[in-house]
Amino acid sequence: MRIHLLTAISVTALSLTAASAFAQSASPATGSTYHASRNGWGQPDLQGTYTTATITPLTRDKRFGTRNVLTKPEADALEAATQAQIARADAPTPPDATVKDLKNADCGPDGISGFNCGYNQGWKDPGTKLIDFNGEKHASIITSPADGQLPPRVASAGDPQAARARAMRTRTDNPEGFSLGERCLLSFGSSAGPPMLPLMYNNTYQIVQSKDEVAIDVEMVHDVRHIRLNAQHGPANMKLWMGDSIGHWEGDTLVVETINMRPEQGLRGASPNQKVIERFTRISPTQIKYAFTVEDPTVYKAPFSGEVSFNATKGQVYEYACHEGNYALTGMLAGARAEEKKQAQAAGAAKSGGE
Prior knowledge:
Blueprint: H1 2-15, H2 17-23, E1 48-51, H3 72-90, E2 132-133, E3 136-137, E4 142-144, H4 160-170, E5 204-209, E6 213-218, E7 223-229, E8 244-250, E9 253-259, E10 275-284, E11 287-295, E12 304-312, H5 324-354
Parallel strand pairs: 7-8
Antiparallel strand pairs: 1-5, 1-12, 2-3, 4-12, 5-6, 6-7, 8-9, 9-10, 10-11, 11-12
């Protein structure tokens, strides 16, 4: 159903290409005076395919303090180090090498990336550049608080890392113990959002507009966000994947308010009370500034905000053929049951031997 609706919107949007082109004027120079061209409904035209791939992290390296704009030497050094790391990871592995010969075979700090791990370099596409707005390269996605860190958590919210550790101990008890991404239900991390944040791969989005809706096709796990324009939120007891998003135009900016997200989804232990405000502004023919603010008083003592660059890219969004929930999940559950049987047999043998 979601794909059919997106296709219908795409066809409608394409039928207005001539009207949209007629409505467009010459593009002014990139900068604060830039105004997006209008589509056939008179809306700022955000349509296109974009990538958010970047090496700018969510939270800021503490050595930069409250400074989010890097100097040119700082930015050049970070981007050069990334390119050098990718070159090392791309280097051919000797055909006679064994696991013991592989460098960085500890799977890296994220536990999955490395030569002999779940994701080698061939699977990844995190980008090689920092977020860049008008020549200013950013040290973190988070812009507020000023130190680029997430706000302090409310004491009653608990520790999300401890909660994840507890969940990992029982994750193979049933299918629901696995993450939404592993079950092919929703994107990994917060790629679909909101807020929509870059990951180590599949950072492509396609934006399609109609008179009453903006649809965003998310490459990661083939999600589609539906943003209803000038609408009202549904009842609070109706929790939706990616939340209930309604939008309106403020000049050249699409402003989106999202509430009623499902409790299984949310950024770093968010509560069902989370509200996200997003702002999409085309600031040049090839770039959209995506700004967001997250309010979750149940979890955080203050709101936090951030900015991501949507950079125009050629080509189309290809199907994300998620397999984990189709094949691998069955194997992991079966493996867990076999391990439990083996442990039970060993315990029974030890008990019999001690009698």
